[in-house]
Q: What sequence folds into this?
């Protein structure tokens, strides 16, 4: 059974701290808090002179009055090296529609980074930005970020919290949800709200059972409703610097984290172009074969794009994993996605179907890729792609 602290009874005497073999008790705002490291070993139960530590059943769902205390949609605005990540703007686009449907404000939370970055969030759709510029939040740290976001949520009580399903969001949002006894749906590809009969439930859609079905999940009795969303799935709003909004400076008392960032070492990628930022992607599947990837690279270079791949091509060892598009690869949203010799399995489609224009080349007219294609070419890639390359070169030579 979970172990918790009754905040009303706790006097902040700290006598429980040494009892925990997992370092799962921390002091927050003068009160003990049992964090997500707790293994329910019960070693702390007898240590509190006030009897403030006790075992409990799983927290009961919130009643209507408690649910009504939570209002507003929040977006966690991830920043790296002081610059807001594109996924934050995408989430503000999605959050704006949810907030408008719920008739509430849309807020962003920015941990670290500058006030100019906070202002940029308003230009992208936020009504308010909760900005905490504490130096300890400059670099991502699971513990500090989880503590900071959880305490801001406890203070302001938003009903919905969205974050990117990036390595950062995937790492610390589960801790936030555990601290708050809230539901979390990871890797969503669609968001909506259920407003029937006075409900205000977030409908969170994500692939399930290996991507064979899309499941829609709601957490009706829990607040906030937390969802992570893959980058490049939602569309950002156009930047509008005339928008006005409020920047709330948040001062937080954060307990010292157990780990600290000593150095940031960047991986040097083979290709200068990041697949997720490419405007044009030429992707190859099993139908292209190993030798076909050279012509896809030539076409991608001509178009100023990058080469992607299906999992089948990656599994064959024809191209490294970092090029894989799909459920277990990258989600991409280029202006043009050219799928060559790719059948269009659902696990591939979830990673590329929001591309602006999809061109599919496949010799099988029944291939499922044609169901999402803007333009479909039924033919052999070894005839179609060289013909495209030739035409582009001819057009450029004129
Ligand atoms: P195939 O399905 O074998 O299709 C090859 C296509 O090429 C066929 O349609 C054929 O008609 C066409 N073709 C053959 N020769 C030619 C030619 N000369 N000219 C034109 N067309 C030709 N897959 C992903 O892509 N990304 C993922 O992230 C991913 N994650 C997965 C996660 C799980 C849990 C599971 C179970 C599967 C996942 N898969 C993923 C695999 C996915 O189910 C498919 O097996 C895979 O996408 C198939 O790749 P393909 O389309 O290249 O190959």
A:
């Amino acid at each position: 059974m979970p172990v918790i602290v009754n905040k009303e009874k706790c006097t902040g005497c700290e006598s429980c701290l040494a009892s925990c073999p997992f370092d799962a008790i921390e002091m927050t705002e003068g009160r003990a808090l049992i964090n997500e490291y707790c293994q329910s070993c019960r070693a702390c139960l007898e240590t509190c002179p006030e009897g403030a530590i006790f075992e409990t059943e799983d927290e009961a769902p919130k009643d209507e009055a408690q649910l009504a205390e939570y209002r507003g949609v929040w977006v966690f605005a991830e920043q790296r090296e002081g610059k807001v990540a594109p996924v934050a703007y995408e989430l503000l686009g999605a959050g704006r529609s949810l907030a408008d449907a719920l008739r509430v404000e849309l807020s962003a939370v920015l941990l670290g980074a500058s006030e100019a970055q906070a202002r940029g969030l308003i230009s992208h759709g936020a009504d308010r930005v909760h900005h905490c510029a504490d130096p300890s939040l400059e670099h991502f740290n699971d513990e500090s970020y989880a503590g900071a976001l959880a305490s801001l949520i406890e203070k302001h009580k938003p009903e919905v919290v969205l974050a990117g399903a990036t390595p950062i969001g995937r790492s610390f949002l589960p801790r936030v949800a555990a601290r708050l006894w809230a539901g979390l749906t990871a890797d969503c590809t669609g968001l909506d709200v259920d407003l029937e009969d006075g409900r205000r439930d977030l409908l969170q859609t994500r692939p399930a059972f290996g991507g064979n079905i899309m499941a829609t999940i709601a957490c009706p009795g829990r607040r906030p409703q937390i969802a992570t969303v893959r980058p490049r799935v939602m569309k950002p709003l156009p930047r509008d610097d005339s928008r006005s909004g409020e920047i709330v400076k948040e001062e937080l008392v954060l307990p010292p984290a157990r780990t600290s960032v000593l150095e940031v070492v960047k991986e040097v990628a083979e290709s200068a172009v990041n697949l997720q930022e490419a405007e044009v992607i030429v992707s190859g599947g099993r139908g292209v074969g190993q030798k076909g990837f050279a012509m896809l690279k030539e076409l991608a270079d001509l178009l100023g794009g990058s080469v992607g791949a299906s999992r089948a091509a990656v599994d064959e060892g024809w191209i490294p994993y970092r090029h894989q598009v799909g459920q277990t690869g990258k989600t991409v949203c280029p202006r043009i996605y050219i799928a060559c010799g790719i059948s269009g399995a659902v696990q591939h489609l979830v990673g590329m179907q929001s591309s602006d224009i999809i061109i599919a080349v496949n010799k099988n007219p029944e291939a499922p890729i044609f169901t999402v294609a803007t333009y479909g070419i039924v033919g052999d890639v070894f005839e179609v792609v060289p013909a495209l390359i030739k035409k582009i070169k001819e057009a450029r030579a004129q």
Notes: The first strand starts at residue 3 and ends at 5. Residues 86-102 form the longest helix (17 residues).
